[in-house]
Every structure is written in structure tokens, then in C-alpha cells.
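Late entry, evening session. Most of the bench is empty. Finally got around to the prediction I had been postponing all week. Sequence below, unchanged from the version circulated by S.P.
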Amino acid sequence: MPKLNDATIQQHNTVQSHYGFSATKIDNLGASEYTLASVVVDVSSSVASFAAELTRAVKEVVRACKYSPRADNLMIRVTQFATQLDEVHGFKLLENCNESDYDCALTVGGSTSLYDASANAIEATSTYALDLKKNDYEANGIVVVITDGDDNASTLSVSAVKKALVKMGRDESLESLVTILVGVNIQDKHIGKKLKSFKDDVGFTQYVELDNADARTLAKLADFVSKSISAQSQSLGTGGPSQSLTI
């Protein structure tokens, strides 16, 4: 379960992904609408050679989002997954997210529970948005899942991830949701094909594939993610999602 050490944060449960999530208490929110951004990072053993670059990318996403014209309307959640899912932090107001919080946050080692992590991110976003809606807040969302390989450890299936996405639409908890699957350091065509199939089978909005994971490439990834979050935030109130960007 998520670790709670902040009086402004509350624990929530989800239906399929039993890990749950944490999020800022409604009483601590000041704006009338929010974009819920989830950044989901693969920390399985195969990312060990570029774990430092991944950490810098997460920090850069948070730093860059603070320059968004809608920074006051952003909440960010960061999770990491290997064999198990771990919440670095739940949905926090961007102003309460510090770059230094991520210095030693990513813990590398284990297999790849891609499906479990994806389902949890979608369910957490939808569940919290429904809570916001019941309290007269408007919300949209964006989920970015970053992985370097196919699933080999999840308890949930591809259909369970799709079920979470379908339920979100049925509940109408969000004005819109953008879901992006990012394949990093994809040099095996078979892995790329598997990830593309996962994207299509679930219904992710976009699949982005990077063939390496050097510092320059992951810096570009951080720029892409932060701009995608900002664009989705600026689309809140239009009735639809933002347009897909490219790296």
C-alpha cells in the first residue's frame, strides 16, 4: 500500500489493482479544476544502466511543469514498478513537488509488472477524479507509462487494463483522459511489436518508441512528457483531450 507521511494526503482504494493510491485531501484544494497527471516508471533490472537518466527525466518533468500556464491546476502522481508496484507519491499539488524529492526515489531491481502498473494508474486517476466531481471540481487526466520491455510479472491481464479504461469512460469522471505508452531503449523489434499490440489492445491514446536511453534521448522524453501534461491541462474546459505531440 502507499506510504502516508503527510497529513494533507488521504489513502484511497481501487477495484482491480489492490495496491490503491493516495491523493491530496479535498479540503486542501484551492482551485476549481485540476489536471491529474500520472507518471509511471519501469524500474525493473533491465533499466539499471540508465536509472540515473530516468531519475533526471522525472525531476525535469516536475521542474518543467512548474512553468506551465496552468501550474496551479496540476496534480502529479509518480509510481514505479518492477515485480511490485510502488507509489513514490500520490496525487500532489505541483507546488508541493520538489525536484529533490526524487533524488533517491527510484529503486531498480526485479521483473516487469507493466499491466498491474498501467491498470493502477488508470484506476487511480478515474477514482480520484470521481471524488473530485462529487465535490464539484472539474478534472481531466493524463497517464504516461514508461517501460523498456514487455510484461512478465503482473497478476492482471491486458483485458483488465482495458476494463479500467472502459470503466473510466462509463463513469464519466473525467472530461478527457490522454494515455501515453512510451517504449524506451527498444532495440528488439519483437518487444516493440508487443508494446504496440498492448497499446492497441488497451486503447492507449499514443505509443512512442525510443531506440536508446542515453541522456540526450531521455532529456527529450522529459520535454515531451512535460509538454504533453501542459497541453492536456490547457485543454480542460474544451470538452476534449489535447492533440498528441511528438518527440
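Two things to note before I forget:
The chain is about 35% helix and 25% strand.
The mean pLDDT is 95.
Will write this up properly tomorrow.
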